[in-house]
Design a protein that fits this description.
The chain has one domain. It contains twelve helices and no strands. 44% of the residues are buried. By secondary structure, the protein is mainly alpha-helical. The longest helix is centred in the N-terminal third of the chain and has 36 residues. The two termini are 21 Å apart.
Length: 261
């Protein structure tokens, strides 16, 4: 039953999936394409003219290498912004949004149990985020081969895995909080707070205290520079664990609360 619900949810979300896929592919292609025509000396002088704090906050320390440029532009900035927005909005809408609009009533009043509805929609949301991550990986591979960025397939997969898991963590939080509370505004607010605090902890945490940055999911994703160093198994495991914790907490609450349908 859960698999059937997941397929139906993904079918209903196909237009949004297509739109976000086109957007992510376009952004990845456009920004990575600049690497082949960028003058390294001019870019270096420009970076040197920026305040040190700004360079550190936005991850612009290395724009001369293919891995550094891809991380600074797409994987560390624009990609997460788009993927997190896509995952969070879909996560909020998967249960809480449909509950508020009355669209959830058909499934929860039919033969399907609430646990099946929750698991099925969680699987659909996971597939949604994974598909978007695959789009970024494919676009990166194509542009890297054209512009000579020097990114190996394994390092592209490592970077895409980190980006995808970062998006999945936030999508799972939005989904679980929405399912636990039935309030889309609360779910979105909590997830945005998690994303913003995590970003600040990753980029500005070292200026506050040594222990701040390691608490950030962004650090788990990008702390070991996967586009340059390859897969970081520990970081991916931490992201997967946080995703699982969010899923379980939502599952414990959703089947037992009163629904506003």
């Amino acid at each position: 039953m859960s698999a059937l619900i997941a397929r139906r949810w993904l079918h209903d979300a196909r237009a949004g999936l297509l739109g976000w896929s086109v957007g992510l592919a376009a952004v990845t292609t456009m920004y990575l394409s600049f690497f082949g025509i960028m003058d390294a000396d001019i870019m270096g002088d420009y970076m040197a003219s920026l305040p040190e704090g700004m360079v550190e906050a936005f991850g612009f320390q290395d724009l001369s290498s293919g891995a550094g440029y891809a991380q600074s532009t797409v994987y560390g900035l624009l990609g997460p912004v788009l993927l997190l927005i896509a995952g969070m909005t879909r996560g909020v809408g998967a249960v809480a949004g449909d509950e508020a609009s009355g669209a959830l009533e058909v499934e929860v009043t039919a033969a399907a149990e609430r646990r099946d509805v929750y698991v099925g929609r969680a699987l659909g949301l996971t597939g949604f985020v994974l598909a978007l991550g695959a789009v970024v990986a494919l676009a990166t591979a194509v542009i890297s081969s054209i512009t000579g960025m020097g990114l190996s397939p394994t390092h592209i997969l490592a970077g895409a895995a980190a980006l995808t898991m970062l998006g999945l963590v936030h999508a799972a939080v939005a989904f679980a909080v929405g399912a636990a509370t039935g309030r889309p505004g609360v779910a979105l607010g909590v997830t945005v707070a998690v994303a913003v605090l995590g970003w600040f902890a990753y980029n500005l945490g070292p200026r506050l205290a040594d222990w701040v940055q390691p608490l950030s999911p962004w650090e788990w994703a990008y702390g070991e520079s996967p586009l340059e160093q390859g897969v970081d198994g520990v970081g991916l495991a931490l992201l997967a664990a946080l995703t699982l914790v969010a899923f379980v907490l939502g599952l414990l609450r959703f089947p037992h609360r009163d629904l506003g349908v």
